[in-house]
Amino acid sequence: MPLKISRILHAGYVFDCDGTKIAFDPIFENPFSRNCYAFPSVRFDIEAIKQQKFSAVFISHYHDDHCSLESLNLLDRDTPIYIYCLYDEIFGFIENLGFKNVFPLAIDEPVKLGSLEIIPRRALDADVDSLFQIKAAGLNVLNVVDSWIDYDTLDLLVKKGPWDMVLWPFQTMREIDVLSPHRVPAPSLELPPEWIEQLRALNPRYVVPSSCQFTQESWSWYNHAFFPITYRQFEKEVKTALPNCQVVRMNPSVTFELTKNSINSAEALTWVLPQGEQDVDYEFNPSLKIPSTAEIAKKFPGLSVAQKEFTLNYCKKGLIEKFGILAESEDPFFARPRLWQLSVFDENGKEKTFRYLLEGNKIEEVPINDDPIEWLTEVPLTKLYAAIEEGESLTSMYVRINDRMFNSTVEKEVQEADVVEDPLIRCLFTGVFGGYQAAQLRKLNEEKVHG
Predict the structure, then answer these.
(1) Tens digit of pLDDT for each residue in 152-203?
(2) Are 318 and 328 a contacting pair, CB within 8 Å?
(3) Cα 214 from Cα 277, distance rounded (Å)
(4) Which domain of life is it from (predicted)?
(5) CA proximity to 170, closest of 194, 187, 195
(6) Which residues lie across from 14 on neighbouring strands?
Protein backbone atom coordinates (compact mmCIF):
# COMPACT_ATOMS: atom_id res chain seq x y z
CA MET A 1 0.00 0.00 0.00
CA PRO A 2 1.27 3.55 -0.66
CA LEU A 3 1.88 6.29 1.90
CA LYS A 4 0.17 9.54 0.91
CA ILE A 5 1.99 12.70 1.98
CA SER A 6 0.34 16.10 1.51
CA ARG A 7 1.63 19.60 2.23
CA ILE A 8 -0.54 22.04 4.16
CA LEU A 9 1.70 25.07 4.71
CA HIS A 10 5.11 25.83 6.22
CA ALA A 11 5.85 22.72 8.36
CA GLY A 12 2.32 21.36 8.05
CA TYR A 13 1.77 17.93 6.45
CA VAL A 14 -0.85 15.20 6.31
CA PHE A 15 0.33 11.57 6.31
CA ASP A 16 -2.34 9.10 5.20
CA CYS A 17 -1.86 5.32 5.13
CA ASP A 18 -4.51 2.59 5.05
CA GLY A 19 -7.16 4.71 6.75
CA THR A 20 -4.87 6.33 9.35
CA LYS A 21 -4.57 10.07 8.71
CA ILE A 22 -2.26 12.24 10.82
CA ALA A 23 -1.64 15.98 10.59
CA PHE A 24 1.75 17.37 11.56
CA ASP A 25 2.11 20.99 12.74
CA PRO A 26 -1.15 22.02 11.04
CA ILE A 27 -1.65 25.70 10.26
CA PHE A 28 -4.93 26.63 8.57
CA GLU A 29 -4.37 30.39 8.54
CA ASN A 30 -3.06 32.89 6.04
CA PRO A 31 -1.46 34.96 7.38
CA PHE A 32 -0.24 33.03 10.42
CA SER A 33 1.98 34.21 13.28
CA ARG A 34 0.62 37.73 12.66
CA ASN A 35 2.57 38.54 9.50
CA CYS A 36 3.60 35.29 7.81
CA TYR A 37 1.86 35.10 4.43
CA ALA A 38 1.75 31.82 2.49
CA PHE A 39 4.33 31.68 -0.29
CA PRO A 40 3.07 30.54 -2.72
CA SER A 41 -0.29 32.03 -1.87
CA VAL A 42 -3.22 29.89 -0.69
CA ARG A 43 -6.66 30.17 0.88
CA PHE A 44 -8.29 27.63 3.18
CA ASP A 45 -11.79 26.16 2.94
CA ILE A 46 -12.59 26.53 6.63
CA GLU A 47 -15.89 24.63 6.51
CA ALA A 48 -14.19 21.70 4.75
CA ILE A 49 -11.41 21.69 7.35
CA LYS A 50 -14.02 21.44 10.10
CA GLN A 51 -15.24 18.23 8.47
CA GLN A 52 -11.82 16.58 8.44
CA LYS A 53 -11.34 13.55 10.64
CA PHE A 54 -7.72 13.16 11.64
CA SER A 55 -6.60 10.10 13.55
CA ALA A 56 -4.32 12.44 15.51
CA VAL A 57 -2.39 15.70 15.34
CA PHE A 58 1.34 15.82 16.14
CA ILE A 59 3.03 19.11 17.00
CA SER A 60 6.80 19.32 17.03
CA HIS A 61 7.09 22.34 19.35
CA TYR A 62 5.15 25.23 20.82
CA HIS A 63 6.18 28.10 18.50
CA ASP A 64 3.15 29.87 17.11
CA ASP A 65 3.92 28.92 13.48
CA HIS A 66 3.57 25.26 14.55
CA CYS A 67 1.08 25.37 17.41
CA SER A 68 -1.78 27.75 16.71
CA LEU A 69 -4.93 27.54 18.79
CA GLU A 70 -6.95 29.26 16.07
CA SER A 71 -6.06 26.43 13.70
CA LEU A 72 -6.64 23.68 16.27
CA ASN A 73 -9.98 25.30 17.10
CA LEU A 74 -11.31 24.11 13.72
CA LEU A 75 -10.80 20.43 14.57
CA ASP A 76 -13.04 17.83 16.19
CA ARG A 77 -12.44 17.84 19.94
CA ASP A 78 -12.12 14.05 20.00
CA THR A 79 -8.94 14.33 17.91
CA PRO A 80 -5.93 13.22 19.98
CA ILE A 81 -3.26 15.93 20.16
CA TYR A 82 0.36 14.93 20.72
CA ILE A 83 2.85 17.71 21.37
CA TYR A 84 6.52 17.91 22.28
CA CYS A 85 6.86 20.63 24.90
CA LEU A 86 8.64 20.90 28.23
CA TYR A 87 6.17 23.50 29.55
CA ASP A 88 2.92 22.31 31.10
CA GLU A 89 1.04 25.49 30.15
CA ILE A 90 0.67 24.49 26.50
CA PHE A 91 -1.29 21.37 27.43
CA GLY A 92 -3.64 23.49 29.51
CA PHE A 93 -4.20 25.89 26.61
CA ILE A 94 -5.19 23.05 24.27
CA GLU A 95 -7.37 21.35 26.88
CA ASN A 96 -9.06 24.70 27.51
CA LEU A 97 -10.19 24.61 23.88
CA GLY A 98 -12.08 21.42 24.74
CA PHE A 99 -9.72 18.74 23.45
CA LYS A 100 -10.17 15.62 25.55
CA ASN A 101 -6.96 13.76 24.71
CA VAL A 102 -3.80 15.85 24.87
CA PHE A 103 -0.56 13.94 25.30
CA PRO A 104 3.09 14.91 25.83
CA LEU A 105 5.66 13.39 23.51
CA ALA A 106 8.96 11.99 24.77
CA ILE A 107 12.14 11.68 22.77
CA ASP A 108 12.69 8.20 21.26
CA GLU A 109 9.36 6.91 22.61
CA PRO A 110 7.24 5.71 19.64
CA VAL A 111 3.53 6.33 19.25
CA LYS A 112 1.70 3.70 17.17
CA LEU A 113 -1.56 4.74 15.54
CA GLY A 114 -3.08 2.33 13.04
CA SER A 115 -0.71 1.96 10.10
CA LEU A 116 1.64 4.73 11.24
CA GLU A 117 4.38 4.82 13.85
CA ILE A 118 5.72 8.21 14.92
CA ILE A 119 8.96 8.49 16.88
CA PRO A 120 10.06 11.88 18.22
CA ARG A 121 13.80 12.41 17.83
CA ARG A 122 16.00 14.90 19.63
CA ALA A 123 16.74 18.20 17.89
CA LEU A 124 19.76 20.39 18.53
CA ASP A 125 17.69 22.70 20.73
CA ALA A 126 16.07 19.94 22.76
CA ASP A 127 14.49 22.45 25.15
CA VAL A 128 12.26 23.60 22.31
CA ASP A 129 12.22 21.43 19.20
CA SER A 130 11.79 17.84 18.16
CA LEU A 131 12.11 15.91 14.91
CA PHE A 132 9.74 13.19 13.72
CA GLN A 133 10.54 9.78 12.31
CA ILE A 134 7.48 8.34 10.56
CA LYS A 135 7.25 4.65 9.66
CA ALA A 136 4.43 3.31 7.50
CA ALA A 137 3.91 0.74 4.77
CA GLY A 138 7.52 -0.38 5.07
CA LEU A 139 8.68 3.21 4.44
CA ASN A 140 10.89 5.42 6.58
CA VAL A 141 10.43 9.20 6.51
CA LEU A 142 12.28 11.85 8.52
CA ASN A 143 10.52 15.16 9.19
CA VAL A 144 13.21 17.57 10.38
CA VAL A 145 10.54 20.28 10.79
CA ASP A 146 12.59 23.52 11.11
CA SER A 147 15.19 22.19 13.51
CA TRP A 148 18.92 21.68 13.36
CA ILE A 149 20.44 18.25 14.00
CA ASP A 150 23.33 17.58 16.37
CA TYR A 151 25.81 14.86 15.50
CA ASP A 152 24.75 12.43 18.22
CA THR A 153 21.23 12.48 16.79
CA LEU A 154 22.64 12.21 13.29
CA ASP A 155 24.57 9.07 14.24
CA LEU A 156 21.34 7.58 15.61
CA LEU A 157 19.37 8.53 12.50
CA VAL A 158 21.94 6.98 10.20
CA LYS A 159 21.57 3.73 12.13
CA LYS A 160 17.78 3.98 11.80
CA GLY A 161 18.02 4.17 8.00
CA PRO A 162 17.75 3.60 5.17
CA TRP A 163 15.60 6.68 4.56
CA ASP A 164 13.01 6.86 1.82
CA MET A 165 12.25 10.57 2.24
CA VAL A 166 13.56 13.47 4.29
CA LEU A 167 11.56 16.68 4.77
CA TRP A 168 14.43 19.14 5.18
CA PRO A 169 14.13 22.81 6.30
CA PHE A 170 15.79 24.39 3.28
CA GLN A 171 15.89 28.01 4.46
CA THR A 172 18.31 29.75 6.76
CA MET A 173 16.30 32.44 8.54
CA ARG A 174 17.87 35.81 9.33
CA GLU A 175 15.50 36.70 12.17
CA ILE A 176 18.39 38.02 14.30
CA ASP A 177 20.30 39.66 11.45
CA VAL A 178 17.38 41.93 10.53
CA LEU A 179 17.46 43.47 14.01
CA SER A 180 20.73 45.25 13.16
CA PRO A 181 20.84 45.08 9.36
CA HIS A 182 23.62 47.62 8.87
CA ARG A 183 25.92 45.74 11.26
CA VAL A 184 25.76 42.18 9.96
CA PRO A 185 27.98 40.76 7.21
CA ALA A 186 26.46 39.63 3.93
CA PRO A 187 24.96 36.14 4.32
CA SER A 188 25.95 33.08 2.37
CA LEU A 189 23.62 32.28 -0.50
CA GLU A 190 24.59 28.62 -0.24
CA LEU A 191 23.43 25.85 2.09
CA PRO A 192 25.37 25.48 5.33
CA PRO A 193 28.06 22.84 4.70
CA GLU A 194 26.85 20.73 7.64
CA TRP A 195 23.47 20.37 5.92
CA ILE A 196 25.09 18.81 2.89
CA GLU A 197 27.23 16.61 5.13
CA GLN A 198 24.17 15.44 7.06
CA LEU A 199 22.07 14.81 3.97
CA ARG A 200 24.90 12.74 2.52
CA ALA A 201 25.02 10.71 5.73
CA LEU A 202 21.25 10.12 5.64
CA ASN A 203 21.33 9.41 1.89
CA PRO A 204 17.54 9.47 1.29
CA ARG A 205 15.82 8.55 -1.96
CA TYR A 206 13.82 11.80 -1.91
CA VAL A 207 14.36 15.18 -0.27
CA VAL A 208 11.59 17.76 0.13
CA PRO A 209 12.63 21.41 0.69
CA SER A 210 10.44 22.01 3.72
CA SER A 211 9.33 24.77 6.12
CA CYS A 212 9.48 28.54 5.69
CA GLN A 213 6.89 28.75 2.92
CA PHE A 214 6.03 32.32 3.78
CA THR A 215 6.80 35.97 3.20
CA GLN A 216 5.87 39.01 5.28
CA GLU A 217 3.58 41.96 4.45
CA SER A 218 3.69 42.99 0.77
CA TRP A 219 5.54 46.21 1.63
CA SER A 220 8.03 44.59 4.00
CA TRP A 221 11.75 44.84 3.32
CA TYR A 222 12.03 41.48 5.09
CA ASN A 223 10.71 39.84 1.91
CA HIS A 224 14.10 40.36 0.27
CA ALA A 225 16.27 40.09 3.37
CA PHE A 226 14.94 37.24 5.52
CA PHE A 227 15.61 34.20 3.33
CA PRO A 228 18.85 34.15 1.31
CA ILE A 229 18.49 30.59 -0.05
CA THR A 230 16.23 29.85 -3.00
CA TYR A 231 14.50 26.65 -4.06
CA ARG A 232 16.77 26.71 -7.11
CA GLN A 233 19.91 26.80 -5.00
CA PHE A 234 18.67 24.06 -2.69
CA GLU A 235 17.90 21.72 -5.56
CA LYS A 236 21.20 22.47 -7.30
CA GLU A 237 23.35 21.77 -4.24
CA VAL A 238 21.45 18.66 -3.12
CA LYS A 239 21.54 17.15 -6.62
CA THR A 240 25.27 17.80 -6.82
CA ALA A 241 25.93 16.24 -3.41
CA LEU A 242 23.49 13.33 -3.82
CA PRO A 243 23.22 12.51 -7.53
CA ASN A 244 20.93 9.52 -6.88
CA CYS A 245 18.52 11.56 -4.74
CA GLN A 246 15.45 13.27 -6.20
CA VAL A 247 14.48 16.72 -4.89
CA VAL A 248 10.69 16.91 -4.71
CA ARG A 249 9.03 20.29 -4.34
CA MET A 250 5.72 20.20 -2.46
CA ASN A 251 3.71 23.38 -2.64
CA PRO A 252 0.68 23.77 -0.35
CA SER A 253 -2.09 21.22 -1.16
CA VAL A 254 0.24 19.00 -3.24
CA THR A 255 0.03 15.25 -2.53
CA PHE A 256 2.36 12.41 -3.46
CA GLU A 257 1.96 8.66 -3.08
CA LEU A 258 5.21 7.12 -1.93
CA THR A 259 6.04 3.42 -2.31
CA LYS A 260 9.24 1.41 -2.03
CA ASN A 261 9.72 1.75 -5.79
CA SER A 262 8.19 5.05 -6.86
CA ILE A 263 6.70 8.43 -6.09
CA ASN A 264 3.59 9.59 -7.94
CA SER A 265 1.33 12.62 -7.88
CA ALA A 266 -2.05 12.11 -6.21
CA GLU A 267 -5.18 14.13 -5.61
CA ALA A 268 -4.37 17.41 -3.88
CA LEU A 269 -5.90 18.44 -0.56
CA THR A 270 -9.25 19.93 -1.50
CA TRP A 271 -9.38 22.25 1.49
CA VAL A 272 -6.08 24.00 0.69
CA LEU A 273 -6.82 26.33 -2.24
CA PRO A 274 -3.79 27.52 -4.24
CA GLN A 275 -4.00 31.13 -5.44
CA GLY A 276 -2.05 32.22 -8.51
CA GLU A 277 1.43 31.08 -9.56
CA GLN A 278 2.72 28.31 -7.31
CA ASP A 279 6.29 27.63 -8.46
CA VAL A 280 7.52 30.95 -7.11
CA ASP A 281 10.95 31.46 -5.57
CA TYR A 282 12.57 33.78 -3.07
CA GLU A 283 14.50 36.82 -4.28
CA PHE A 284 17.21 37.93 -1.89
CA ASN A 285 18.46 41.49 -2.42
CA PRO A 286 21.60 42.41 -0.47
CA SER A 287 21.57 45.99 -1.85
CA LEU A 288 18.03 46.68 -0.67
CA LYS A 289 17.40 50.14 0.76
CA ILE A 290 16.27 49.51 4.32
CA PRO A 291 13.46 51.79 5.53
CA SER A 292 13.69 53.58 8.86
CA THR A 293 11.61 52.48 11.84
CA ALA A 294 9.63 55.71 11.45
CA GLU A 295 8.69 54.72 7.88
CA ILE A 296 7.76 51.20 8.97
CA ALA A 297 5.61 52.48 11.84
CA LYS A 298 3.44 54.38 9.35
CA LYS A 299 2.38 51.04 7.84
CA PHE A 300 0.49 50.00 10.98
CA PRO A 301 -2.86 51.27 12.26
CA GLY A 302 -2.77 53.68 15.15
CA LEU A 303 -3.67 52.72 18.69
CA SER A 304 -6.67 54.02 20.57
CA VAL A 305 -6.04 56.72 23.14
CA ALA A 306 -6.28 54.12 25.92
CA GLN A 307 -3.95 51.68 24.14
CA LYS A 308 -1.38 54.40 23.49
CA GLU A 309 -1.50 55.53 27.11
CA PHE A 310 -1.13 51.91 28.26
CA THR A 311 1.92 51.35 26.05
CA LEU A 312 3.67 54.58 26.99
CA ASN A 313 2.99 53.83 30.64
CA TYR A 314 4.70 50.47 30.14
CA CYS A 315 7.79 52.35 28.98
CA LYS A 316 7.72 54.52 32.09
CA LYS A 317 6.69 51.94 34.65
CA GLY A 318 6.01 48.34 33.53
CA LEU A 319 9.32 47.94 31.76
CA ILE A 320 11.20 49.28 34.76
CA GLU A 321 9.38 46.92 37.11
CA LYS A 322 10.06 43.91 34.87
CA PHE A 323 13.74 44.76 34.36
CA GLY A 324 14.19 45.02 38.13
CA ILE A 325 13.21 41.37 38.67
CA LEU A 326 15.34 39.97 35.86
CA ALA A 327 18.68 38.34 36.52
CA GLU A 328 21.61 40.47 35.48
CA SER A 329 22.65 40.10 31.86
CA GLU A 330 25.61 37.79 31.39
CA ASP A 331 26.81 39.76 28.37
CA PRO A 332 30.09 41.54 29.24
CA PHE A 333 28.79 44.68 27.53
CA PHE A 334 26.34 45.20 30.40
CA ALA A 335 28.92 44.56 33.12
CA ARG A 336 29.17 48.31 33.70
CA PRO A 337 26.51 51.06 33.71
CA ARG A 338 25.04 51.86 30.29
CA LEU A 339 22.86 54.64 28.95
CA TRP A 340 20.03 53.08 26.94
CA GLN A 341 17.61 54.88 24.63
CA LEU A 342 14.25 53.41 23.66
CA SER A 343 12.52 55.14 20.74
CA VAL A 344 8.91 54.33 19.88
CA PHE A 345 7.19 55.55 16.71
CA ASP A 346 3.45 56.13 16.27
CA GLU A 347 1.37 55.64 13.13
CA ASN A 348 2.51 59.05 11.83
CA GLY A 349 6.17 58.16 12.26
CA LYS A 350 6.46 60.54 15.20
CA GLU A 351 9.15 59.49 17.67
CA LYS A 352 8.89 59.47 21.45
CA THR A 353 12.13 58.83 23.28
CA PHE A 354 12.86 57.33 26.69
CA ARG A 355 16.28 57.11 28.29
CA TYR A 356 17.35 54.79 31.06
CA LEU A 357 20.47 54.19 33.07
CA LEU A 358 21.17 50.47 33.35
CA GLU A 359 23.35 49.03 36.09
CA GLY A 360 23.15 45.29 36.74
CA ASN A 361 19.44 44.63 37.12
CA LYS A 362 18.80 48.19 38.28
CA ILE A 363 17.19 50.63 35.91
CA GLU A 364 15.98 54.20 36.18
CA GLU A 365 14.57 56.64 33.68
CA VAL A 366 16.86 59.65 33.27
CA PRO A 367 16.45 63.03 31.55
CA ILE A 368 17.31 63.31 27.89
CA ASN A 369 20.43 65.42 27.45
CA ASP A 370 23.58 65.53 25.35
CA ASP A 371 25.23 62.54 27.03
CA PRO A 372 26.10 59.95 24.37
CA ILE A 373 23.85 56.88 24.44
CA GLU A 374 25.42 53.42 24.46
CA TRP A 375 22.51 51.22 23.34
CA LEU A 376 19.58 52.03 21.07
CA THR A 377 16.26 50.21 20.58
CA GLU A 378 13.61 51.34 18.09
CA VAL A 379 10.13 49.87 17.66
CA PRO A 380 6.74 50.88 16.21
CA LEU A 381 4.37 51.77 19.04
CA THR A 382 1.60 49.56 17.63
CA LYS A 383 3.93 46.56 17.61
CA LEU A 384 5.10 47.22 21.16
CA TYR A 385 1.48 47.22 22.31
CA ALA A 386 0.88 43.95 20.42
CA ALA A 387 3.89 42.35 22.11
CA ILE A 388 2.74 43.37 25.58
CA GLU A 389 -0.95 42.52 25.19
CA GLU A 390 -1.26 40.02 22.34
CA GLY A 391 1.87 37.89 22.48
CA GLU A 392 3.40 39.35 19.32
CA SER A 393 6.67 37.56 18.59
CA LEU A 394 10.01 39.26 18.06
CA THR A 395 10.17 38.29 14.38
CA SER A 396 7.07 40.36 13.49
CA MET A 397 7.72 43.43 15.67
CA TYR A 398 10.18 45.21 13.35
CA VAL A 399 12.45 45.99 16.27
CA ARG A 400 15.72 47.68 15.32
CA ILE A 401 18.71 47.45 17.69
CA ASN A 402 21.89 49.56 17.59
CA ASP A 403 21.43 50.17 13.89
CA ARG A 404 23.58 53.32 13.98
CA MET A 405 27.16 54.34 14.73
CA PHE A 406 28.14 55.21 18.30
CA ASN A 407 31.28 56.98 19.48
CA SER A 408 34.48 55.03 18.83
CA THR A 409 34.78 53.52 22.32
CA VAL A 410 31.17 52.34 22.51
CA GLU A 411 31.18 51.23 18.89
CA LYS A 412 34.00 48.78 19.49
CA GLU A 413 32.21 47.30 22.52
CA VAL A 414 28.80 47.14 20.86
CA GLN A 415 30.20 45.05 18.02
CA GLU A 416 30.91 42.26 20.51
CA ALA A 417 27.54 42.46 22.28
CA ASP A 418 24.65 40.04 21.78
CA VAL A 419 21.66 41.91 20.33
CA VAL A 420 19.15 39.59 22.01
CA GLU A 421 20.44 40.85 25.35
CA ASP A 422 18.63 44.04 24.41
CA PRO A 423 16.78 45.35 27.52
CA LEU A 424 13.41 45.61 25.77
CA ILE A 425 13.65 42.09 24.36
CA ARG A 426 14.56 40.74 27.77
CA CYS A 427 11.67 42.56 29.46
CA LEU A 428 9.11 41.40 26.90
CA PHE A 429 10.15 37.77 26.55
CA THR A 430 12.19 36.57 29.52
CA GLY A 431 10.14 34.23 31.68
CA VAL A 432 7.14 34.55 29.36
CA PHE A 433 5.79 31.35 27.84
CA GLY A 434 2.98 30.99 25.34
CA GLY A 435 2.00 34.65 25.17
CA TYR A 436 0.73 34.22 21.62
CA GLN A 437 -1.38 31.18 22.46
CA ALA A 438 -2.68 32.81 25.66
CA ALA A 439 -3.87 35.80 23.62
CA GLN A 440 -5.46 33.46 21.07
CA LEU A 441 -7.27 31.63 23.85
CA ARG A 442 -8.61 34.87 25.32
CA LYS A 443 -9.87 35.91 21.90
CA LEU A 444 -11.51 32.54 21.19
CA ASN A 445 -13.18 32.45 24.60
CA GLU A 446 -14.49 35.99 24.12
CA GLU A 447 -15.89 35.03 20.71
CA LYS A 448 -17.59 32.04 22.31
CA VAL A 449 -19.19 34.22 24.97
CA HIS A 450 -20.37 36.87 22.50
CA GLY A 451 -20.95 34.50 19.72
Answers:
(1) 999 999 999 999 999 999 999 999 999 999 999 999 999 999 999 999 999 9
(2) no
(3) 14
(4) Bacteria
(5) 195
(6) 6, 23
Identify the H or E element spanning 76. Answer: none
287 domain residue, yes or no: no
Burial of 441 (0-12, 13-18, 19+ CB in 10 A): buried
Q: How confident is the model at residue 451 (pLDDT cuts 50, 70, 90)?
A: low
Which of 241, 274, 307 delimits the end of a domain?
A: 274
Contact 97, 73 (CB under 8 A): yes
User: What pLDDT, on a 0 to 100 scale, did the predictor assign at position 448?
Assistant: 83
Q: How many CB atoms lie within 10 A of CB 136?
A: 25
Instruction: Provide the number of structural domains found in the chain.
Output: 2
CA R_g for the chain: 23
Region of 212 on the Ramachandran plot (φ > 0 left; ψ -120 to 50 alpha; else beta): left
Contacts for 333 with CB less than 8 Å, ≥ 6 apart: 413, 414, 416, 417, 418, 421
- Taking the CA atoms of 117, 14, 436 and 168 in sequence, report the sign of the dihedral they define: positive
- Whole-angstrom Cα distance, residue 138 to residue 181? 48
- State the average pLDDT over residues 339-344: 98
| Residue 286 domain flag | no
Q: State the pTM of this model.
A: 0.96
Beta strands 263-266 and 272-274: pairing type? Answer: unpaired
**C-alpha–C-alpha distance, residues 413 and 395, integer Å:** 25
Residue 1: is its pLDDT beyond 90? no
Q: How far apart are CA 61 and CA 67, in angstroms?
A: 7
Q: What is the extent of the structural domain holding 421?
A: 293-450
Segment holding 93, helix H or strand E: helix 89-96
Residue 169 and residue 208 in contact, taking contact as beta carbons nearer than 8 Å: no
CB 86 within 8 A of CB 109: no
pLDDT digit string, tens, across residues 21-62: 999 999 999 999 999 999 999 999 999 999 999 999 999 999
Report the CATH number that the domain containing residue 34 is assigned in CATH. Answer: 3.60.15.10
Q: Are residues 244 and 388 located together in one domain of the fold?
A: no
The enclosing domain of 435 has a CATH number of 3.30.1050
